[in-house]
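Entry:
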Amino acid sequence: MTADSGPGQESGTDAPLVHIFADESCLGNQFEDRRNPGAAAGLIERFDERRGWYRRDFAHFDPDTTNNRMAIASGIVGLGSLRRACRVVFTSDSQYLIRGMKEWVHGWARRGWRRKGGPIENLELWRELVRVAGRHRVEWRWTRGHADDVKNAYADHLAVTAARDRHGTDGLVPSAFESWLAEEQEKERYMDFLDLPSDAFNADRQPPTSDDPPGD
């Protein structure tokens, strides 16, 4: 699996194709006077024609956070776990994350990491995600949450579990996707799901590379 391979290198058309399905959770957002634990989590997978699926899970816990911060963290942790340059299809139901990386960061960088309406929320996290994403060619895909996207549902399960249990993973761990899916299908959910690989990939613009300090 790419995540266990050697040092980074330039990603091109021959770079491994990896899919990341990520989600975030934050418990207690309705309360303003207490800490809100949350998590960013996801499934990383690659298909090999000889060996089949290779899958790993990740989960990052934060004792006091927001949904938006965890959405960005899902990108930082997921992409940061890949130890060589890849082509990555990154799927999330967070429009904040997907629009941020497809649209907003490019304008912010051109304006010296400023935005017209005032300070950029979670600026340092955005800049860290831009740095991590710059090692790869990434297609940022949005999917509707709580629909019938099986792997998005699994990522949601991972994030909610990590937030509830207040515990993440130490790096990547063997995935429990197949056993989770079997349990769901016993409840007659996702019965039409076919676990087929896809080689569809259309990289978005590379994130900005400016190292200029954020604006005052």
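The chain has a mean pLDDT of 90.
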